[in-house]
Amino acid sequence: MNDHCHCCLLMLWARAIRGILANRQAIEDVLVQRERQPSKASDKDFFRECAWAIYNTRTPYKAVKEIWPDVEEAFLCWDYALVCQSIDKVRTAATRIRIWNSVRKAEATTAIALWMHKTGWAAIKQRLLSGLKTDSQGNLKPEDGLIAYLDQLRMIGETNATFILKNLGYDVAKADIRLRRLAARFDYPGDKDGVQQFASDISKLALERISVVETVLWNACNSKADLGFKCPACGRQR
Q1: Residue 196 and residue 155: Cα distance in Å, rounded?
Q2: What pTM was estimated for this model as a whole?
Q3: What is the mean pLDDT, run by run of 10 residues, along the chain of 238 residues?
Q4: Which domains are present in the chain?
Q5: Which of 135, 138, 139, 144 could bridge to 171 as Cys pair (CB 3.0-4.6 Å)?
């Protein structure tokens, strides 16, 4: 953090907060993220967050929000055991949802239900909590191999695995295009490590969890908030 202007990061944080204050959904997202804890995650939480990551892949957030009630209904309110009992019916209902790549997304989500049934939730939960670490700021960090563990699932990959872990309560930052660009504006590498360090540095200054910082910044970007300014300390135009 010593290589980056603290004033710039704090001013960005203030502008991001101001940018989402009128956005009720964004504020709800932030409040929910503050309360998330990996130890509290249920099987339905895990199944839902995997599906949320899948359905958001290459699809605008607004479009996913519009069809999400239909997705929840198709997947029987995230009861993976019931899904496995009615797999053909569930798959048919999900493929009828009007969204880009609906067939592939339905197949990937039903595959996760089948994997959960085969593996068992108790074993999955044990793996999720194995090696859980808390840093000096109180951030909850996953075990190093956990992203690779989720990466084995269909249509997940490294970025979506990070997305899922964040939504389960881990303090990681999803390196999507918005945050990669924002991090680069503040002289961080525009990759997953750069985004994680970017959110971590702001977290230390703002005394907030990394996952909450990521949620605020993402919502500010998604809301097209004005995050530009000239720093009074270093004089740079951001």
Answers
A1: 22
A2: 0.92
A3: 86 96 94 96 98 94 94 97 96 91 94 97 96 90 93 93 97 94 95 96 96 97 93 90
A4: 6-36+173-222 (no CATH), 40-132+143-167 (1.10.340)
A5: 139
